Amino acid sequence: MLxxxxxxxxxxxxxVYELGRDEEILAYVTSANIACGFHAGDPSVMRxxxxxxxxxxxxxxxxxxxPDLVGFGRRNMAVSPxxxxxxxxxxxxxxxxFVKASGxxxxxxxxxxxxxxxxxxxxxLSRAIAExxxxxxxxxxxxxxxxxxxxxxxxxxGLRTAHEVFADRTYQPDGxxxxxxxxxxxxxxxxxxxxxxxxxxxxxxxxxxTVCIHGDGPHALTFAEAIRQxxxxxxxxxxxxxxx
Length: 244
What we know:
CATH class: Alpha Beta
Oligomer: single chain
CATH architecture: Alpha-Beta Barrel
Low-confidence stretches: none
Shape: globular
Radius of gyration: 16 Å
Strand content: 15-25%
């Protein structure tokens, strides 16, 4: 039986500003990537999101991003590998404190937004991120764009890795994500998103250990429901990456 993890970016509210329908989406996913305060999230949001995930048996991962609240971490920044190492270590540590305080154990780390996309192509940046993850806990799983430099760096560092594909994003011929600034970058139809997920998981041309749904999308809950249902119909087991 084919197996795949279904993950969602969560905990991206900030102060009085609420984003996403995290509690409802948690019923359909197996892993949650929780923002750590740099691109979104705050201490109270982090705590609540961790507690909700643990209550529903969803595996928890840190979702470190660039220090850019205004741009939601989706704007490139000229950070050095050392800076990337430091900010990744800092954010993992922050979320890990909430996870431990709630009696849980962190499963993975998945960089966010521009940091994720930059690392997908930059070997030095990727290695810095992977080394930060390893320094916190060698048992953590590093999530990265399927076939990317980030996944390769994780493997070279000695981490378990998860090749990630996206339900709601289109791809370029070289396997990278279509930039959000370009037309057609996002998939808005849940049926099309579900069909893309099944194709990516089944055809094997792109490694697909885990599938991402963006929690800040306007139709994130509908996407989660449609994809989970379609995977079940296709007899594909949905299970957290750390349980495979």
